[in-house]
Amino acid sequence: MDKIIIFDTTLRDGEQAPGASLDQNQKLEIARELETLGVDVIEAGFPISSPGDFKSVEMVARKIKRPCVCGLARAIPKDIDAAYEATKPAKHPRIHVFLATSKIHMKYKLQKAEEEILRLAVRSVKYARNLCDDIEFSPEDATRTEREFLYRVVEEVINSGATTVNIPDTVGWTEPKEYGDLIKSIIENVPNINKAVISVHCHNDLGLAVANSLSAIKNGARQAECTINGIGERAGNASMEEIVMAMKVRADIFGLNTNINTREIYKASRMVSKYTGFLVPPNKAVVGLNAFRHESGIHQDGVLKKRSTYEVISAEDVGFKTESLVLGKHSGRHAFSQRLANLGYKFNQAGIDKAFTEFKILADKKKEIFDDDLLAIIEEKSKAAVQQVWSLDGFEISSGSSIAPQAMIALKAKGKVFRKVSSGDGPVDACYKAIENIIHIKCQLLDYSIQSVTRGEDALGEVSVRIKAKGKDFSGRATSTDIVEASIKAYLQALNKAVS
Ligand code: KIV
Ligand code: ZN
């Protein structure tokens, strides 16, 4: 088989990243984008984990047509039943059962011996296979599992009906040569391995997730589990865009295809970043803002003469729009809607009118409007935007080296306006304190970061925050030409998630 199945777990393992909670609409929009992107399997969630997760998986299963829709389950009947019920409406449902097989997990986490684990694995795969034809089994922490035991588990679950066996590097422990050899040894030592697809699932604790996945692919794995922007538990999962582009750019080495329409990559990356609130670092491979920028004179000169002197990926191939100056204050509605269509966004008249109004407001503040500015506007207006229980009605700040920073914030809820004044360590802190006094919510700011969307003195500032409220992490993100306003709106978005 010269095709690699792309299994996207942004909505499951990706959403397990602290603070990455997504609501149902956001999950559905991401799933739709994954479908457009061409992924083969969407792991939509862990249905038993919460009623919300169950509903999201079910909704994705109903609405998504081409890709297989997968639900995760522990090796217990009630989990498998939930995964079955949630994925049942899909055209191609899959149940993904996992059970830890490493000594450390069996002894300390499960307190079970090898034979019992084997029995549970077999029983659960048989149980799942009675419900669904497409079953994936993951021996969790496979890379720290005793080899002989791993071979036995893989052989037995295939005999019991597993159609895909995943070999997870759950804790990001392995390195490329060792992982490639493990896949090769499974192929050599499991007699019925040709009856199942071998999958890889790598975590990035040592920064090796993509390299490990590619090494496994070179050694015979044919499904890669990954997430957009590499989000996931702890240091994250293998990044889909990096795996796919490595195979595409170095087709001479891999000789393998995927169904991914790489021109959708940048759009998918922005969407995931926007909804999770996780900014993409500027130096991130494939989708970072600097991935196609050249600073040194020697590099710029080379690129002008021939791009491939210093660029191995073409920006267009990943749908990255290189800072083209598109519109300004005097641009009309027609040019605006045409530009949106070129960026791949279709709106009805009302949607265009709304976005056009925002565009004009921005054009009054900012001379040159780039594609990324337009994307920032329309993403704020997207259907899946967070429910606005509280919205910003106005603010004033006073700050300076010899006065204590003070902020007046006016928030609107259910048509009523509430005002509070507060002081703080800086203008943003004062704003956040005033907001907390209005909403009467105790919360802790865990992370705050800011970056510019495009270049120039009047660039849009993009603020991303992560807060802890009601015992849970929530993230928010917003853009504005005024960084205090962006900071307030990002905070409000996170609080709106917490209160709604
Ligand atoms: O990392 C892991 O082991 C997992 C399994 C559930 C596949 O996410
Ligand atoms: Zn994982």
Explain the layout of strands and helices.
Layout: E1 5-8, H1 24-37, E2 41-45, H2 51-63, E3 68-74, H3 77-87, E4 93-100, H4 103-110, H5 114-129, E5 135-140, H6 147-159, E6 164-169, H7 176-189, E7 197-202, H8 209-218, E8 223-226, H9 240-249, H10 251-254, H11 265-276, H12 297-305, E9 325-327, H13 333-342, H14 349-365, E10 369-370, H15 371-380, E11 391-398, E12 406-413, E13 416-423, H16 427-439, E14 443-452, E15 461-469, E16 472-480, H17 483-499
The structure holds 3-methyl-2-oxobutanoic acid (KIV) and zinc ion.
Give every kind of bound small molecule, once each: 3-methyl-2-oxobutanoic acid, zinc ion
Helix content: 40-55%
Q: Give the helix/strand class.
A: alpha/beta
* Strand line-up across the major sheet: 1-2-3-4-5-6-7-8
Average per-residue pLDDT, rounded, comes to 92
Main β sheet profile: 8 strands, parallel, barrel
Q: Give the DSSP E fraction (strand runs of 2 or more residues).
A: 15-25%
Q: Span between N and C termini?
A: 47 Å
